[in-house]
Every structure is written in C-alpha cells, then in structure tokens.
Amino acid sequence: MRITTSLLALAALLPLFACSTSGTADPMSAAEAALQSGDSSKAVSLLEGHIATLDKTSSTYREATILLCSALAEKKPAEAKDALLKLVEAQPTGVTPKDFKDVQSYLQTHEHYSVAVDLMDAGLKRWKDDPTMNEVKDALVAKIKGAGDAEAMAKLKGLGYM
C-alpha cells in the first residue's frame, strides 16, 4: 500500500517535472517571440523545422505557415508570397483575407512594395468584393504613392489599381 501511494504521488508530479525541466519552448511561441524581437532569421529557422512535422490540412499548419510568411517578408519577400499562395492551394477554405492582410503588413513594413502588389492582386482576384482586401489595396496604394516606388507604381497602374 505504501509503495502504491508513493508511486501515485510520483506519477502526479511527473507532468510538472517535465514542464519545468524541458527548457524547450513551443516552436510557434518561440518563433513569434523571435519575430517580435526583430530576429526574422531565427523565426524562419524555428518554423521551417516545425512545419515539416505538421499535417498540411491542420489549422496549426496554416497558422505556422502564415507566421513563416511574415518572418520571410523581411529578407525573402518573394518566398513569403510564394509560401502564402501555396498555402491557399493546400487549404483553399482555410486561408482568409485577414491572413493576406497580415503578410501584407510585414511586406509593407520592409518596403517590399512590388511583391506586396503581386500578393494584393492575388488576394483581390480571390476575394474581389471583400472589405479586408479592399482595405489592403487602399493602404498599399497610399503607401506606394508616399514612398514614390516607381516600380511598384508602374505595377499598380499596369494591373489597373491606379
């Protein structure tokens, strides 16, 4: 009886012990923290390994890929755009205009306007009457006008947005 009671007490403490000694953070939380602190390279590294282990139909895969796109936006904007468009193919009903808006925000922050125009155009073709995508368009057009990015302005004009 005494051994059984001791084993039960030990079994009850094991989850607490495992949590306090693991030292490994959830890859999504660690990547988000890295991105928020400005370390997009670390975020990309954490997310690429994590995404490889996920089911491509899961919501966690979608969330991790959106976060990866945001991290890629700083140094590899074309890869960010491509990853988001591939996610749309993998989960056509899972990706939302808000996801496009989130990635757009990072592309604009890092002044990758030409790639942002490509992504905006893809989003508007998918959700042409969506208010979120129209907000994205209006904000991007204003940002590009303010920045004076000739390449992005020419792209906007060529696509009929200016």
Overview of the molecule:
The protein starts with a helix and ends with a helix. The chain has helices at residues 2-21, 27-36, 40-51, 59-75, 77-90, 97-109, 113-126, 131-147, 150-158. It is 78% helix and 0% strand. The protein is globular.
Characteristics of this structure?
globular, 162 residues, mainly alpha, 78% helix
| Count of helix runs | 9
Give the total of beta strands: 0
Q: Can you give the helix content as a percent range?
A: over 70%
Low-pLDDT segments = 3-23
Radius of gyration: 21 Å
The main pleated sheet reads as:
none
Task: Tell me the fraction of residues in β-strands, as a range.
Answer: under 5%
Order of helices and strands: HHHHHHHHH
Distance between the termini: 81 Å
Structural class: mainly alpha
Shape assignment: globular
Q: Mean pLDDT across all residues, rounded? A: 86
Summarize the structure.
The chain is mostly helical and 162 residues long.
Which secondary structure elements does this structure contain, and how are they paired or packed?
Blueprint lengths: L1 H20 L5 H10 L3 H12 L7 H17 L1 H14 L6 H13 L3 H14 L4 H17 L2 H9 L4
